[in-house]
Amino acid sequence: MGQSASLANIRQHFIHYAQENLQEKLFVHTDKSFYLAGELLWFKVYDVDGSFHKPLELTKVAYVEILDQTQKPVAQAKISMKEGTGNGSFFLPVSLHSGNYTLRAYTNWMKNFSSSYFFEKSITVVNTLRSPDPVQQTASSGYKVQFFPEGGDLVQGLQNRLALEILDTNGKGVEGCQGAVLDQNGDTAVQFKSVRFGMGNFYFRPEANKTYHTVIKIGSDTIIQPALPGILEKGFVMNLVDADGDRLELTVETNTTLPDKTLLLLIHTRQVLDLTETMQLEQNKAIFFIDKKNLGEGISQLTIFNNARQPLCERLYFKKPGALHLRVESDQKEYMLRHKVELGIQSENESGSPLAANLSMSVFLLDSLQSPEDGDILSYLWLQSDIKGYIESPEYYFRNSGKEVEETTDNLMMTHGWRRFRWEDVLHGEKKIPEFIPEFEGHTVRGRILDNKNSTPVDDITAYLSVPGEKSLFCAATSDQNGNLRFDVTDFFGSEEVVVQTNGWKDSSYHVNILSPFSEKNSGIVLPRLRLSKDQEDQLLERSI
Questions:
Q1: What is d(CA 108, CA 27) in angstroms, rounded to the nearest whole number?
Q2: Among the listed residues 308, 319, 239, 237, the one whose alpha carbon sits nearest the alpha carbon of residue 275
Q3: Rounded CA separation 180/189 (Å)
Q4: Are strands 154-155 and 231-232 parallel, antiparallel or unpaired?
Q5: What residues are paired with 449 via a beta bridge?
Q6: Could you please report the per-residue DSSP string of 498-530?
Q7: Could you give the count of Cα atoms lying within 13 Å of 409 in the half-sphere of its Cβ?
Q8: How far apart are CA 15 and CA 2, in angstroms?
Q9: Residues 6+ apart with CB under 8 A from 127
Q10: What is the DSSP string of 183-247?
Q11: Residue (of 505, 499, 516) closest to 461 by Cα position
């Protein structure tokens, strides 16, 4: 009875949290990713719910920005959204420096959560009229190595599986590195290597009263010695493997003696509950068999709890989703300049049946400056938006199949963590009133009324917003206890002048500050400095002319 009550309690808290914290995702399709200053950047915005990836009509406004290396905006726009899509463009001024920039997008509702949920994409802008900034040389080993115990912890006396990731200074994986875990006497405990995208994994059983360190050889002459994660004396480990073609086998093991040997397994896919199950530890081990057909497509999170509702260990699993297939046919194979191009596009599901789709298409020249795009809406929604950090060649996981792809995908799940919520917030967090509400009908103009004498906020003062001109607008709002104002502007777009004021006859001692609707939070991702090779000079000259 206690087991059922604990499991039901976790389920109830999880479902309640998911209902109170709707997840929203944006994807932005740009016409290309390499631009010259003075060009136009065209884009289309897609808005979907974070659980089912269906078009979302929650908001009528999306915020799109271009940020420089210091995370300062160089271009900002509000984009009108209708039926989950919107489109627009940026003019890239000749005042921009050559470099890599971040294009990001979010909604007002998304500002309630971490900025790591915002859509981000790297674009390159080259200004041929200005000399590029000198590239600063930094002294570093040039490599970043991390180890990730499956389940979260490395535990003494238990068979642990560790994933590793070896990256160069540009964040690219380094393949073919050979390494070993050595004890204090220099004896080899286990050997390992990095494979696709610099990732890999190996099994390791640390012994009591021993200390360990690693040695990794990169290339022919580089030796590094990164540290292992801390080794716990007591704890839990988990190991997920394919049992057969249709099932997964999840083994949980501990070296801790527990008065209650009940373990609770909860699996969800993007906050949609897939499976809950209980199992008893026998000789400090429990084995769960999971039918793959019960899991949602994309990334699922598997978490083990004890009967006291404490999360013990967890990991991610990726189930490759079915994709929309597009067939594109042109009326000719070759075209002359200024010749009309006619294309026929057919969208189908995996079985070949016609399927309606909302699409966008870009056409650009492939040369030494512009390469094919790394990711698309498929890889972003199903993969990049739900795990931490940079993913090298995300399209690889969707366009390929086979044993190597499965192993690489498993390494990716172990080296990139979940980021959507913390269990502490789900099980023990208090309900929070969101600071930003969805812009259901149009964009919201926020401001604050301040006293002219001491610049303190003033409550219960009415202010008026108006837009003079042929397309006029007028609305009013009253300040709250913090002096905040909110004007809900419905179906009004354009670049007209906006006037906000209080009643001059009785409230002339106050003034109104309009608050920026754009987020000041950033994800902290640092883009690499732009480096142009000599063979790109001719292409740049031709493009600039």
A1: 15
A2: 319
A3: 7
A4: parallel
A5: 512
A6: -EEEE-TTT-TTEEEEEPP-S------PPPPPP
A7: 25
A8: 20
A9: 36, 37, 94, 96, 97, 98
A10: ETTS-EEEEEE--GGGEEEEEE-PPTT--EEEEEEETTTEEE-PPPPPEESS-EEEEEEESSSSE
A11: 505
Structure tokens at 285: 């081990």
Q: Judging by beta carbons within 10 Å of its beta carbon (0-12, 13-18, 19+), is residue 189 exposed, middle or buried?
A: middle
What are φ and ψ of residue 99, in 5° steps?
A: 165, 180
Query: Which candidate, 530, 539, 544, 538, places its Cα nearest to that of 367?
Result: 539
What the block records as the tokens of 362 is 């870009």
Report, as ranges of residue numbers, the positions in the chain whose pLDDT lies below 70. Answer: 1-4, 132-141
Structure tokens at 82: 């209708």
Beta carbons of 169 and 141 less than 8 angstroms apart:
no
Give the count of beta carbons closer than 10 Å to the beta carbon of residue 178: 12
Contacts of 17 (CB under 8 A, 6+ apart): 271, 421, 425, 426, 429
For 367-468, where are the alpha helices, taking DSSP H only?
Answer: 377-382, 396-399, 403-415, 423-427
What pLDDT, on a 0 to 100 scale, did the predictor assign at position 1?
A: 42
Quote the pLDDT of residue 380.
95
Q: Measuring CA to CA, which residue among 124, 28, 87 is closest to residue 376? A: 28
Q: Which residues contact 280 (CB under 8 A, 6 or more apart)?
A: 261, 262, 263, 286
DSSP state of 111: G
**DSSP 8-state symbol, 452:** T
Instruction: List C-alpha distances in Å: 8 to 11, 13, 14, 301.
Output: 5, 9, 10, 18
Whether the Cβ atoms of residue 468 and residue 499 lie closer than 8 Å to each other: yes
> Phi, psi (5° rounding) for residue 243?
-80, -45
- Contacts of residue 447, defined as CB under 8 A and 6 or more positions apart, other chains included, come to 463, 484, 485, 487, 500, 512, 513, 514, 515
> How far is the C-alpha of 314 from the C-alpha of 267, rounded, in Å?
10
Q: Please name the residue that has the structure tokens 């007002």.
A: 108
Please return the burial class of 310, using the count of CB atoms within 10 Å of its CB with bins 0-12, 13-18 and 19+: exposed
Cβ-proximal residues to 107 (8 Å cutoff; 6+ apart), any chain: 24, 26, 47, 58, 59, 61, 62, 63, 438, 439
* Cα 204 from Cα 148, distance rounded (Å): 12
Q: What is the pLDDT of residue 133?
A: 64
Q: Phi and psi at residue 385, in whole multiples of 5°?
A: -75, -10
Q: How far apart are CA 285 and CA 471, in angstroms?
A: 71
Distances from the Cα of 359 to the Cα of 25, 331, 362, 374, angstroms: 17, 20, 10, 18
Residue pair 401/426 in contact (Cβ under 8 Å)? The answer is no
Buried b or exposed e, range 283-301, using 16+ CB within 10 angstroms: eeebebebeeeebbebbbb
| 394 within 8 A of 383, measured Cβ to Cβ | yes
What is the phi/psi pair of residue 153, to 5°? -130, 150
Return the structure tokens found at 513: 């500050």
Counts for the chain of helices (H) and strands (E), in that order: 6, 32
* Rg value, the chain, Cα: 27
Q: What are phi and psi of 288, to 5 degrees?
A: -105, 135
Residue 134's pLDDT is what? 61
